[in-house]
Amino acid sequence: MSDSEVAVHNPALRHHFAEVEQQRNASSLGMWLFLVTEVMFFGGMFCAYLVYRTAHFGDFAAASSTLDLKLGTINTAVLILSSLTVVMAVWAAQTGKQKALVMYLLLTIVLGLAFLGVKGVEYAEKFEKHHVPGPTFHFAGAIPGHPDHPADPRHAEMFFSLYFVMTGMHAVHMIIGIGLFAFLAFKASRGAYTPAYFTPIENAGLYWHFVDIIWIYLFPLLYLIDRHK
Amino acid sequence: MSEHISSPRLYVGIWLSLMVLTVVTVVAAQIDLGAFNTIVALTIASLKAVLVVLFFMHVKYAHERMIKPVIAAALFFLFLLLALSMADFATRLWI
């Protein structure tokens, strides 16, 4: 090893890694392993959904058709746009554009809060209509395509239980993500991230995209059951 | 370092594709395709997920070779969870 190599030692490189690329690969792999545990965490809920939807398809379709399709579609668009701003934040970090990095992180926070705001409007509507599972739950819809065949309220209640658990856990993940990005935007504004070191931006980005993918599946599964009838 | 940096133009292109697929899935849900409504909805969702994983999560250009096997393992165990659960619940009335 020559003296010049020691002199240019990257301050971001931890000493138990041989080189920056190995360090990045290790942190990236660790993040992916965490996301695998998240796949199984949400997988349990998707499995419960699959079992009950298969058993009570008509009742699930009746309950699903009471959800606001317009708000659901708007929220899908908002979340996809936030994925774009996150990936642009990573790009800004890679290319050393500090102001753009902070701006894209703040934009992501705004879009995340917009999503939660719309979700709050939807939740409020559920309370007004007594579609929240519990002692005051009330459901009087008919099975789509069979106007004289009322849906079983107990099965509709199961749909709304799954709706609240799945969108609720998704929202909790978004709140955590927004907190992460607020912290990262603060650090980035003080110049903590450079093209040589932006691992936290990259890994928070992976987390946010994962949460986006969960919604990409939740949207058709919850909002789009038998809409054509 | 030889990391891959995608262009913002690619990211905007992927974003546009995701938006178009969202519109397509909402429109397709209004058309009566029988049992295929669910299949179409889940196929479009999976297409969107693949776009996000490959381009936004940079798996297409990842240097770390273990990421793809890790994703495959996650999908395999998710498949086991769903398939074996349904093998039980969907066949209980067959006795």
Summarize the entry for a quick read.
Chain A has helices at residues 3-7, 20-55, 57-64, 69-94, 98-128, 153-189, 199-223; strands at 142-143, 146-150.
Question: Can you tell me about this structure?
Answer:
The complex is a heterodimer of chains A (229) and B (95). Helices cover 73% and strands 3% of the residues of chain A. Chain A is mainly alpha-helical and 229 residues long. Chain A has a single domain, classed as Four Helix Bundle (Hemerythrin (Met), subunit A) (Up-down Bundle), CATH 1.20.120.80. In chain A, strands 1-2 form a two-stranded antiparallel sheet. Chain A is elongated, with a radius of gyration of 22 Å. The mean pLDDT of chain A is 94. By secondary structure, chain B is mostly helical. Chain B is flat, with a radius of gyration of 18 Å. The interface between A and B is large, with 53 and 51 residues.
